[in-house]
Write a structure and sequence with these properties.
Helices cover about 45% and strands about 10% of the residues. With about 375 residues, it is α/β, with parallel strands linked by helices. Strand 4, helix 3 (about 80-90) and strand 5 form a beta-alpha-beta unit.
Length: about 375
C-alpha cells in the first residue's frame, strides 16, 4: 500500500496567542499528489477564508505566480539547485522563509523575511542574537514543548510560534477552575437530556456562563433573525443537539473577563471539527466524534487527570474508550491527530494511512476545520 504524503497544516500563534499564520509540512521529502496550491484552490472552504494571514509552504511545492501571502520556506541553507529560483524570487521581491538547522550558520539580519528556529537551537545562541535578527525578520519559534518554552520565545523577540505547548498543562499544581467544573455539570445534564428548567437554573446561578452563551447564539456564527435574550429561546433556536455542541466549546471560553480568546478554545474547535470530518460513518456518529475531539483537551484546561474528568460525564462507551484509552476507531484517529499537532509527522502519517484516510479527504477536512474554527473565533 502506498502511504500518502499528507500535508500537515499548523496554525501559528502570534504574540497575542491568536492564529497569525499557517505552516505546511510533510513527513516525506517528495510530494506525490501534485502542486499543493492547485489542490488547495479546489477546496470551497479555502476560497472563503481570510487570506490576509501568511501561509508558509515548502519550496518544492511553491509556484512563482502564487499570491504574495504564500511564502516559500527552505529547510536549512538552500541547496545549490535552489539558488537560481531563490534569486528569482528575491528579484521579484517575494517574501522568503528559512528553517534553520542546529549546526548551520545564521543568516544576516533581514536576509530572510521569516526565520523558523527550534527553541533548542535558539537556546544555544549568544545573548541578544534573536533581538538582533528580529529587527528586520519575523522569527517563528518551533518545537515548543512547554508553556515555559513559549514564554521564553515571546520574551526573546519571537513573533510567532508553533502550538505543541498547548497540549500540556500550564501549571499541573493549579487548582481546577470552579466555574468550568460547573460547566462540566451542565454538559452532563445535556448528555442526560435533562429538562429545560434544570438547565436554565444553572445559567441563572452562573451569570458569566449565561452571558457567554447569549453572546454566542447572537453572534455572526449563528446569526439569528432576531436577538436571543433567554436560555429557553437559545434552546428553541439551536435545538438540544446544537446547543450541546456549543456548550462543549463554551467550556473553553474565558470565565475571568479577559479580552483575549483562550487558544485552547480554537484548538478544541478545530480538533472537534476535524474528528467529525474524518470519522467513519455510520460506525461512529459525528456527534460522538466531535465530542471526543472537543473533550480531548479538558484535562489540560481543567488541570485534572482525564479519568477524573470523564468520571463526571455520562459518555457513550465509544467516546469513553477513545478519550480514556485511545481505543476504537475514534481513539486511533485521536492518536493520529494528536501526533500531527505535536509535529510527530511520520507517526501521524502512518496512523492516518492505517485508518484508510486518503490525501484528499485529509486535506479537505483540515481546511474545513480551520475555516470553521476561524468563523467562531469571535463568537465566544
Amino acid at each position: 500500500m502506498t502511504v500518502p504524503n499528507y500535508p500537515f497544516i499548523h496554525p501559528l500563534l502570534g504574540t497575542d496567542e491568536q492564529w497569525a499564520a499557517y505552516l505546511v509540512e510533510f513527513a516525506g521529502d517528495d510530494g506525490n499528489e501534485g502542486p499543493l496550491f492547485d489542490r488547495l484552490s479546489q477546496i470551497p472552504a479555502f476560497s472563503e477564508m481570510d487570506h490576509r494571514q501568511p501561509w508558509l509552504l515548502p519550496f518544492r511545492d511553491f509556484n512563482h505566480d502564487l499570491p504574495a501571502h504564500f511564502i516559500p520556506y527552505f529547510s536549512g541553507q538552500p541547496s545549490d539547485e535552489c539558488v537560481a529560483q531563490e534569486a528569482e524570487l528575491r528579484q521579484r521581491k517575494r517574501p522568503l522563509a528559512l528553517e534553520t538547522v542546529l549546526d548551520g550558520k545564521l543568516p544576516a539580519t533581514g536576509a530572510w523575511h521569516y526565520l523558523l528556529m527550534s527553541t533548542a537551537h535558539a537556546h544555544t545562541l549568544p545573548p541578544l542574537t534573536l533581538q538582533g535578527l528580529a529587527i528586520r525578520t519575523h522569527i517563528i519559534a518551533t518545537g515548543l514543548h512547554t508553556h515555559s518554552d513559549r514564554d521564553w520565545a515571546m520574551a526573546n523577540a519571537c513573533a510567532m510560534s508553533t502550538t505543541e505547548f498547548l497540549l500540556t498543562r500550564a501549571d499541573p499544581n493549579k487548582k481546577a477552575d470552579i466555574t468550568r467544573q460547573k460547566m462540566i455539570r451542565l454538559l452532563a445534564l445535556i448528555a442526560e437530556d435533562a429538562d429545560t428548567p434544570a438547565l436554565d437554573e444553572i445559567f441563572r446561578q452562573e451569570a458569566k456562563l449565561s452571558y457567554s452563551l447569549l453572546r454566542l447564539v447572537n453572534s455572526a456564527a449563528i446569526a439569528p433573525r432576531s436577538p436571543i435574550d433567554s436560555f429557553s429561546q437559545a434552546i428553541n433556536l439551536l435545538g438540544r443537539r446544537q446547543l450541546g455542541r456549543w456548550l462543549q466549546l463554551l467550556v473553553y471560553a474565558d470565565t475571568e473577563g479577559k479580552k483575549a480568546i483562550n487558544p485552547l478554545l480554537i484548538k478544541a474547535a478545530m480538533r472537534g471539527r476535524l474528528m467529525e470530518q474524518l470519522a467513519e460513518k455510520p460506525d461512529d456518529s459525528t456527534d460522538c466524534a466531535f465530542m471526543v475531539g472537543c473533550f480531548s483537551l479538558l484535562d489540560v484546561l481543567l488541570n485534572l487527570p482525564m479519568q477524573e474528568v470523564l468520571a463526571q460525564l455520562p459518555l457513550p462507551a465509544s467516546c469513553y474508550e477513545a478519550l480514556a484509552k485511545h481505543q476504537g476507531q475514534l481513539g486511533r484517529l485521536l492518536t493520529a491527530l494528536t501526533a500531527a499537532e505535536s509535529r510527530n509527522l511520520s507517526t501521524a502519517q502512518k496512523l492516518l494511512a492505517d485508518l484508510g484516510i486518503t490525501f484528499d479527504r485529509f486535506m479537505d477536512a483540515q481546511i474545513d476545520s480551520i475555516h470553521w474554527a476561524n468563523q467562531i473565533r469571535n463568537a465566544v
